[in-house]
Structure formats: structure tokens, C-alpha cells
Amino acid sequence: MTNNDLKDLLFEAQEHLNEAIRLLDNYVRETGDSNAEAYIVDHLRIYAGRDHGFLSRDLNIDDLLERVDDREPDEADDEAEDSNLDLATDWIAQCVSGNMAWSNELRRYVAIPDNED
Prior knowledge:
With 117 residues, the chain is mainly α. The chain folds into 2 domains: 3-70; 75-111. It is built from 4 helices and 2 strands. It has helices spanning 3-31, 34-48, 61-70, 75-97, and strands spanning 100-103, 108-111. The two termini are 44 Å apart.
């Protein structure tokens, strides 16, 4: 995965965590369950990000996002992206040139070989 893919993954996780916190806050407000607030909701707030207001050095999603920013791009990731781009470009070029046809049996487009006889 690229760094941007990893960041997107973490942002999505953070959104889900914040939604869970919101729902649990509603539960606590309706029931007055202070144990749920202290032992579940407050811990989730700490994990969700730095702006929780508690004195804590626990690892949170904002820390993970920083780790991704500090991460060196992997050469294998770059090569895989370049390879996928090359394949997509070749496929588009074949489609445009008319060297592709739909195969009902395979249920996909297939390359038609050039006649070089």
C-alpha cells in the first residue's frame, strides 16, 4: 500500500471511531452509566486522536498518521504503481486501436493478436 492508501485507511478508522464515541455518548447521556463513560468512551477518545483533553501518552490514530508521514516510500510500491499504470495504459491503447474484443465465454475483453503473416 502507498502512504496515501495507509492514510486513507487511518482516516476512515478515525471516522468510525468518532462515530462509535458519538453513539456511546448518547448511551451514557440516556443512562447515566458513568462506568461506560470512564472505561469505554474515555479510552476510545484517547485512541481516536490527540484532542481528547486527558493527560495521556497512549498511542492514538494521530500518532499513526505521523508515522505514515515519516515513512519512506517503498520502492516496491512505486514499481508496482508504475507497473499497474503501464498495464492500464497498454490496455487503453489496445482498446482504442481496436485490438480488443468482448468474449462472452470469458466475460471480459480480450486482446486480438495482430496478423503479421
